[in-house]
Amino acid sequence: MTKRRTLLICDDEPELAEELGEFFTATDWHVRTCHSARDALTVLLEGYHPICLITDLRVGEHDGAELVAAARLLPKDLQPQVVVIITGHIINEAEAADFDADLLYVKPLDPILMVDQIEAVLAQAASANSL
Amino acid sequence: MNLSFDKLTTRGMRFVSAAMVVTTIVFFVATVMVYNSTDSQRSMLAKKIHNSGWIVYQAQLEFLKATSRLRLAAVSSHADEFEALKLRLELLRSRLPILYESDEADLLPGLTGYKPDLQIFEQRLDGMIDALSHPDLFEVSGADVFHEWDIELQPLGRLLQRVLLSSVSYNEATAQIEAQLDANPARIPLLLLFASGTILVLILLATERRVQMRLTQVMQGQAALQSMESSLLAVIQATPACVIVFDPASEQVRLINPAALAVVDAPLSDPDWKRLTRAAREVAVDTNGNPWGSITMTFSRRQGDVVSLRGSLCEVLWHGTPQALLVVADTSRIRHAELQVMQAAKLASLGEMATAIAHELNQPLAVIKMATANAARLLQSGAGHELVQAKLDRIQGQVDRAKRITDQVRRYARMPTDHSTSFSIRAALELAAGFVAEQYRAAGIQLLLRFNVSPDVMVMGEQIMFEQLIVNLLVNARDACETHALAQGGAPPRVLVHCRVEGDHVIIEVDDNGGGIAPDILPHLFEAFTTTKPADKGTGLGLSLSRTVVRDMGGTISAANLAEGARFTVDIPRLAAPVSAMAE
Which of A84, A87, A83, A82 is nearest to A123 (CA)? Predict the structure, then answer.
């Protein structure tokens, strides 16, 4: 059975978070959006455990990396399978692994490409679990 | 002309001095002559007094002779005796009027009081003399008659005796005075007179000498003054600064030097001079209404180019009349260099902010990208027109947002001008703070803005430069906070911008908790090439240029350390509120 595709988006740009959520919703994702890392942490602690977490690198007063770290501290089966960092900063040599994430995008990002790559990571994770 | 006048003055003074000396000598000689004349008269008077005693004595003697002859005639009735008696009586009679009619008699005190008595005796003697002209009358009783006459004349004898006694005592007093005068010869007062005259002449000569010396000093002072004026004019003519003296009332230019002529490049009758002096007076008027002060201004020349001028306007006495003195230096090249450095510093800080600007610009671009993707999806799915229109509206809003960012960058990168204008201090602070806000957000530094000023509080200056000044201070504070946070950790980095009005000034304080400024750097902080930043991060010109900007606005900038960081204080004059605004 395919796990329900749930997504938590965290970005302090409400309009961007909204557009991103709308795009994923249209591709059969269940989306929740937050505009600060504090709210996103609350959502996670309240029991919403998405398979994908998309967060801005800097959201309000908190660092997006802190949110990622908090998510990584959840039990293994409750952790997001895909963690995506999006940022408006120019970070030329940074890699997703530097932030303990699976994917890293610099704004403005291509949503179709991002959906495809998330799907690819999920498929890769699923095949790994089946083995 | 002055030299001729001085010669005339000197000659005149000498003539007056000589005339005074001659006059003094003449008076001295005249005094001696008068003294001699008086002394001579005194001697003559003494002689008369002596003669007056002699006259009385003669009369007394004649009385005795007459009475003796009268007694002799009483015992001898001889005709010869009668004749001798008559002669004696006539002599006595002739002596009596002399006692009160002669000049000598006038000198005897109280003699005129005896005149009536003497005249009675004169009449009686006349009677006796007449009687003796007829000797036959005395043949029978001559002895008795003569005896009676003797008795009648005795009061005359006593009268003459009294007169003689008073004459003798008067002569004795006169003799004593003469003896005293002889004991104190007239040379002493004469010498005193001579001495006083000599002293007077010496005083006159000394006075003349003193006046002469003073005149010489005055003439030397005038010559020195003329020399100084000539030197001053030479300095004014040679100085590279523009020097203009003009009448503030009529705006007529009194003096210019070659440097001023080179700037205006027009004859004195040209209206450009009035345009320059008028502009200088308008700029020099400060917020207190004081018409004199420092000047930073531009002047558009008739050739079309603009020159930067910096200097001051003050009041001077020019040939005894209050005039305005404008001294300005053509700082066009310096100003241009300053503007270039300012621009370079701005572009350097713009480069430092490029990452933050790119991030800020990426936000609307990201929204646009997503909205475009959603719009395309909606169109493909045949969704309603309204949904697509909403996406287009969102895209339009984000494009405007991106434009505001690029406008801000363009405004910041614009080459500063040299024109001062009035601008709202609050608006300028908000623009400057807005420009660095994203950097602060990215660096995790709290930026607190406490603007206790209304938007209509205006200041005078070049707004772009002022904004650059505030951006400089905020960038410095950000760097200090970042460096301090990395080294120390501890309290969250924070920068506070506080603006308030104090009297006719606006005070802007930028406080940080970045650890403060090293005490050895603090005194030199606003000097060029002073920096605490790494070589690749700061030019060392930011604060020096900031000081120039504030100075041009007529204000001051200072720095001090607080408990946790540093405080930069900018104090600039506030423009007087318009009457209508004040009424509100």
Answer: A82
